[in-house]
Amino acid sequence: MDPQLRDEHRQLLEKNQKQLLTYGTSGFREESKYLKFVGWRVGIFIGQMSKNTTLKLGVMITASHNKIIDNGFKIVPPKGGMLSIEEEQNIEIFYKSEEIVQSETQYDTGIVYVGRDTRPSSESLCQIVLDGIKEAGAIGINLGIVTTPQCAFLVYATNLGLVNQIESNQQFFVEYFCNIFLQLIKNPIKGTLVIDGAEGVGGIWIKYFQEKLANVLTIQRINYGDEPHLLNDGCGSEFVQKEKKLPKNFVYDPTYRYASLDGDADRLVYYYFEQNKLQIIEGDRFAILFAMYIKQQLQKKPDLKLSIGIIQTAYANSASTKYITENLGIYAKYAPTGVKYLHRVAHEFDIGIYFEANGHGAVIYKDHVLSQLKEFELFELELFLKLSNQAVGDAIINILMTEFLLNKLEITIQDWLLIYQDYPALSTKLYVKNKQIIKTNYEETTLIEPIDLKQKVDEIMSKYDKSYRTCIRPSGTENVVRIHSEGPQVEIVKEIDFRINEMLKSYMEI
Ligand code: NG1
Ligand code: ZN
Fold this sequence. Notes:
The strands form 5 sheets. Strands 1-3-2-4-5 form a 5-stranded mixed sheet, sandwiched between helices. The longest helix is centred in the C-terminal third of the chain and has 18 residues, at 490-507. The protein is an alpha/beta fold. The relative contact order is 0.10. α2 (36-50) crosses α3, α2 (36-50) crosses α4 and α6 packs antiparallel against α13 (379-387). The chain has 4 domains: 3-167, Alpha-D-Glucose-1,6-Bisphosphate, Chain A, domain 3, CATH 3.40.120.10; 175-280, Alpha-D-Glucose-1,6-Bisphosphate, Chain A, domain 3 (3-Layer(aba) Sandwich), CATH 3.40.120.10; 283-393, Alpha-D-Glucose-1,6-Bisphosphate, subunit A, domain 3 (Alpha-D-Glucose-1,6-Bisphosphate, Chain A, domain 3), CATH 3.40.120; 425-507, TATA-Binding Protein, CATH 3.30.310.50. It has helices at residues 3-15, 36-50, 85-96, 122-135, 148-159, 172-184, 201-212, 237-243, 283-298, 318-327, 339-346, 369-375, 379-387, 395-408, 413-418, 451-461, 490-507; strands at 28-31, 57-61, 70-76, 111-116, 139-145, 192-196, 218-222, 257-261, 268-274, 277-281, 308-312, 331-334, 351-355, 361-365, 425-431, 439-440, 447-449, 469-474, 480-486. The structure holds 2-acetamido-2-deoxy-1-O-phosphono-alpha-D-galactopyranose (NG1) and zinc ion (ZN). One of its GO terms (molecular function) is phosphoacetylglucosamine mutase activity. It comes from Paramecium primaurelia.
């Protein structure tokens, strides 16, 4: 093995205090300078995996909303979606090993598509992954700069035979979804939608949608990637949603709608600015908008029995969960943070809608659903579901679905915010060295270990009534503990957040 790669691997192990890098909330993620060895191992692993199937696989190189110096690898299985828990464990075991393990493979070769975001480290990491794939005796095809959902969709679409020769046809992604959207939209949509591309890959690809849809939807792009060194810097969905600030280059017009993507275009928030106040539409409201329409359509055909579920995380505002169950009459379920968990749970329903508060989300449906909708002549709903990216949650495609619905249901972005009122909530993070000591229940709503820490949290919370809650969990993507508090009065929520933070500062290794 290349001694340089071996060296970097040792540094990574040292940095992580001899702990394994885990295939976390969204794949492997680290500071990019430690990722060469991991990339090479990911390449070999997926190369071998591809030699056990006639279907194509994918790897996306990105660290999404994280800092520009970070990077990561997300593996795309044949149908998009996520690796199984067992595959995740296998890749974690495999990556740390320094030898080339030639496991038994069924075929002489396999095919893997490799996509990457605009980070400076992405190009060389892409080459390393391609080297690993070659080492395993498989063929790696470089997709170039694509969004995470685009990479997943291209893998999915090739395997379904929707498109051939994807290697020269990344544009297929744009054509496929624009065609469906244009079938759904009867008249031009009013107003202008300003899209903040986080200075990343989404901003680049939005241009093609802007051009193709110009007759029905007016899109204005800001932070569209002409300053790639400023990726996620003062712009993008993470900045807007977590900092509650307007992105740079914001152009105010009271009639405009605004949307921000994250660095790899799988997260989306909408917002508007009124009376000096930024009003943000988070993931919960996308789930509700989509579910309202799906339910309304299905109610036209009482004989058609399809199960619908909405999957959320502990970061969902409780007011949204209450609205889903009490007003929409739809089943709401919690999953741990990370789309990989939500996606899996969403598959339990005929139509599963999942969204994280930060705007990661999708509508996914079982294979029989489209033909049943056709049989019951629910053609518009059939098109709407076809518009949703089945491979993985997709910010650009979710914009198209949202624009269709706001127009169809004649809802303004302001009305959307008035459907229900969020409880005041506050999310903060604390940088720590030993986040892994914290363990929660499956839904991540309650801390269970360490026991003495749990007692301290319970003691703080015992001063407040049951309508207040706080969740503490280790991040899967950063060396932080996240604290999320919520309740009826904003001042009390701030007080809880402050007290929990202070207590954690003295308890954890900072
Ligand atoms: P971590 O760092 O595990 O909290 C964050 C987001 C997730 C998901 C992942 C992947 C929050 C609270 N957490 O995970 O929802 O988006 O990054 O990018 O927003
Ligand atoms: Zn992302």
